[in-house]
Amino acid sequence: MNRVWYTPSKKTNLQGLVIDETTGKNIAVTYEVEDAPLAAAAPKLLEALKGALADLVALQSGMPRISREEETKRNSEYHTAIEKAEEELSC
Fold this sequence. Notes:
By secondary structure, this protein is an alpha+beta fold. 53% of the residues lie in helices and 13% in strands. The chain has three helices and three strands. The chain has helices at residues 36-40, 42-61, 68-90, and strands spanning 5-6, 16-20, 26-30. It has a three-stranded antiparallel β-sheet. Helix 2 (42-61) runs antiparallel to helix 3. The longest helix has 23 residues, at 68-90. The protein starts with a strand and ends with a helix. 10% of the residues are buried.
C-alpha cells in the first residue's frame, strides 16, 4: 500500500499537522511546526528502509542480489525521499 502523507501549505505558529492524502484525515500532530514534514515523510522513508533491509538480508544470506536496474531505482527513491524530507524541514 502506497500511503502519501503531507503537511498543509498553510503554516501556523502553533503545531504541525500531517494529513493522509487519500482519506484527508489527520495522521499526526507535532508540537513544533518544523517537525511535521519529517513525520509526513515516514511512509516513504519506511519503504526505502524496507528495501535496504531486504538487500542486506539477501547479501548476508548469500541469496541472489537484486538487479542493477532495481538497485538504481531503489537508491533513487531513497534519495528522493530523503531530499524531500530535508527540503520540507528547511521550510
